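Lab notebook, page 48
Experiment: co-folding of the full assembly
Goal: obtain a model of how the components sit together before planning crosslinking
Operator: M.T.
Materials (sequences as entered):
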Amino acid sequence: MKYWNSTLKSMTEYIPGEQPEDIDEYIKLNTNENAFPPSADILNAITKECSGNLRLYPNPDAETLTKICADTWGLSQSNYFAANGSDELFSLIFRGFIDRDQLAAFSYPSYSLYYTMSEANGIAYDKIDLKDDFSIDFAKFLKKKYALVIFCNPNNPTGTGVNREGLIKFLEKYKGVAVVDEAYVDFSGNSMIDLVNSFDNLIVTRSFSKSYSLAGLRVGIAAAHRDIIEGFKKIKDSYNVDRLAQAGAIAALKDKKSFNYRVSMINNNKDYLTESLDELGFKTVPSEANFIFTNHSSIDAKTLYEKLKENKILVRHFDGPRLSNYLRITVGSMIEIKAFLKVLRSIIDEI
Amino acid sequence: MKYWNSTLKSMTEYIPGEQPEDIDEYIKLNTNENAFPPSADILNAITKECSGNLRLYPNPDAETLTKICADTWGLSQSNYFAANGSDELFSLIFRGFIDRDQLAAFSYPSYSLYYTMSEANGIAYDKIDLKDDFSIDFAKFLKKKYALVIFCNPNNPTGTGVNREGLIKFLEKYKGVAVVDEAYVDFSGNSMIDLVNSFDNLIVTRSFSKSYSLAGLRVGIAAAHRDIIEGFKKIKDSYNVDRLAQAGAIAALKDKKSFNYRVSMINNNKDYLTESLDELGFKTVPSEANFIFTNHSSIDAKTLYEKLKENKILVRHFDGPRLSNYLRITVGSMIEIKAFLKVLRSIIDEI
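Observation: model returned without errors.
Model output:
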């Protein structure tokens, strides 16, 4: 660590879900990827872009993509910004919209990348506990002067959605920058993106990694007042979204039929998974996402995680208060869910 | 700029080369893209990766790619790190390897992105003038305590290479982090990458946007001591290089035949372009890159730039001391060069 700066030395490393080398031997329900592949229309659009033109830089502001974002989600093209995954959006937010002597706040439990990124950018933050039902405690976010807050809608890892009325009341009083991370929102449809028209300090982020089945392509979108969008454009790298990623995201937004199919299939499978777990003695938090957060009445979650892994099934287990007795399980295909349930039943029988 | 932080407000925006909307009507010699497309082998490898697996996250550390970097350029796999273009490498370097109370230094004239990125990350810097022959004034980089220096090899926009002996003598005395940006080095072959074995404070960066004809794909590579590589991995976004970009870069490194073809064609065309400009009264700086830096004995560079643009030919003109009377011209295909020269002759005849 001889040449690491003070921030790099002191930050906590973000730990993504396991990606073992012999990944093909596992049923992988640990990183919330979509169970269904992108459609032929989407793959064909990317393949078509894969030409000699790859020698040329991409459109620096992904202008065709941001246009179709406006057509699909409302607002104007000037309210959209494209990035190399939501990760890059968060990184740019910490670098451009909060100063190092200011304070941020995030819910706990929530997506731990927020804490990591805040540390990586030298920004101090408070963790504000979710209420007992895992809803956001908006009042506590108003008790100090926070320059940046991030709400995850629906929340990762609990699956609970943001309460719209609660958010609006909060935004009417709050003076800093508020981010609503909607990586998983398409599985509920309860988006806050229209509130960008009413609040010039609101940034809503979207991802193509979940409902659009393009985790391998890396595209994230921010929606915000055009003044904030101009800030993103000023601080970003010149060509941050490559040609193939732009083409894939454009085709994904156009292909509404396959989008609707994937979302409804996942939601059907989620209901089946939740009901089956009920029968096995689990209590599952109502989920608006493509994953569930569940705990068993008598069996320790870490034990279950380990036994499942021994049987080549990966789910996510987090250490920490209120997390350690839960499992976060991605909603897989019906084949994956049935294989998972079969193994789970035999583990429970053995214990 | 209501919600912009102090850094975002005060930084100077980076201005990339023009990308006009009716780009297909232009001969584009302004952003140093490769005149030749990637080979069929490279395009086929990307197309093959364009499958249902795009629903899954990419390998977070691009492990197959870094392995083949070591096979191609020497050093070990643990000495390599992959990013979303060189731009992301520089961004990570400013965020991870220099503190905000430390000082950076870059040559002038050089790639202006260094100045922009330094400002975007709140790092103060000195500009150190190149010598009269556009070589680096290493002694001046030792006069103060700099925590970070970047040398561009060969230098953009002058095309001049880094002197190897001068660099070694510098590194023997220098205590901070030294970056050698080798985006264009394949056109000369004068790489400093082997010096990573001798100096644990040296980072050499490479790009797939120039010699590998993949500007549209966004892949950059850093080579450094494994301790620095571990720092990059800690601070980077989880999945920063997408599946298709990894596949394209891997195929590009394997396809040595098309690489050699592109490099030799560009160098041949560069000689022809330089000689033709000599005959028209230009004086061109000897170039180790895929662009030339040239000025005319009597005609103002900005006038030439504007007249060329009127004729749908884009070259690069920079304002600023020692820059404003030069044009930077990308070495195009022979068809592009001949069309450019024809227009240029008629402009000169008219003046």
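Interpretation: The longest strand of chain A covers residues 103-108.
Next step: discuss with group before ordering constructs.
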